[in-house]
């Protein structure tokens, strides 16, 4: 097993995070099958620590559910359509108009910022190209000077 170049360590276990362990960990976290990962790595102390922490937080262990039957602890907010009476309310119309204006302004600002960044990138690329050309010319002059000596 090769150790990753920056020699990261697992935060909880304080062992070198090898490429193989890293790949296994990311695979099993993606598949939500932590028990299989613990069986392969063979670290029972970590599994007991994890189960104790999950019990403290009252969270189901990953083995207790399949990914298709998982329901999050918090449900999304229910959207309620406005009645025609509410939509005709002047206060509601003012709020909606202010919100629409704010959204328009925010999107416009984001587009302007993105355009500015793209312009800076183009300028930097152009400057880089010019500097490379200057460097090429200077190197050519230097090589011609060496030949004459």
Give a verbal description of the structure.
By secondary structure, this protein is mostly helical. Among the domains are: 19-63, no CATH class; 90-148. Helix content is 66%, strand content 0%. α1 packs antiparallel against α2 (34-41). The two termini are 54 Å apart. 1% of the residues are buried.
Please give a quick description of this structure:
The protein has helices at residues 19-31, 34-41, 44-57, 84-87, 90-148.
Descriptors for this entry?
coiled coil, bZIP_sf, RNA polymerase II cis-regulatory region sequence-specific DNA binding, 149 residues, C/EBP
Helices, strands, pairings?
Blueprint: H1 19-31, H2 34-41, H3 44-57, H4 84-87, H5 90-148
Helix pairs in contact: 1-2
DSSP summary, beta strand count: 0
Number of helices: 5
The largest sheet, given as strand count, sense and whether it forms a barrel, is:
none
Uncertain segments: 1-11
Distance N to C terminus: 54 Å
- Strand % is under 5%
Radius of gyration: 30 Å
Taken from the alpha-carbon principal axes, the silhouette is flat
Q: How much helicity do the residues have? A: 55-70%
What is the N-to-C succession of helices and strands?
HHHHH
* Average predicted confidence as pLDDT: 75
């Amino acid at each position: 097993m090769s150790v990753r170049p920056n020699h990261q360590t697992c935060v909880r276990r304080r062992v070198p995070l090898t490429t193989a362990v890293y790949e296994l960990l990311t695979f099993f976290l993606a598949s939500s099958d932590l028990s299989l990962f613990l069986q392969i790595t063979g670290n029972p102390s970590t599994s007991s620590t994890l189960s104790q922490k999950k019990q403290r937080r009252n969270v189901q262990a990953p083995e207790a559910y399949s990914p298709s039957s998982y329901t999050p602890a918090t449900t999304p907010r229910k959207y309620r359509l406005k009645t025609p009476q509410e939509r005709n309310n002047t206060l509601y119309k003012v709020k909606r108009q202010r919100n629409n204006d704010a959204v328009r302004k925010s999107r416009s600002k984001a587009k302007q910022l993105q355009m500015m960044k793209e312009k800076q990138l183009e300028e930097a690329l152009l400057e880089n190209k010019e500097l490379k050309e200057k460097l090429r010319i200077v190197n050519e002059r230097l090589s011609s000077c060496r030949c004459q000596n």
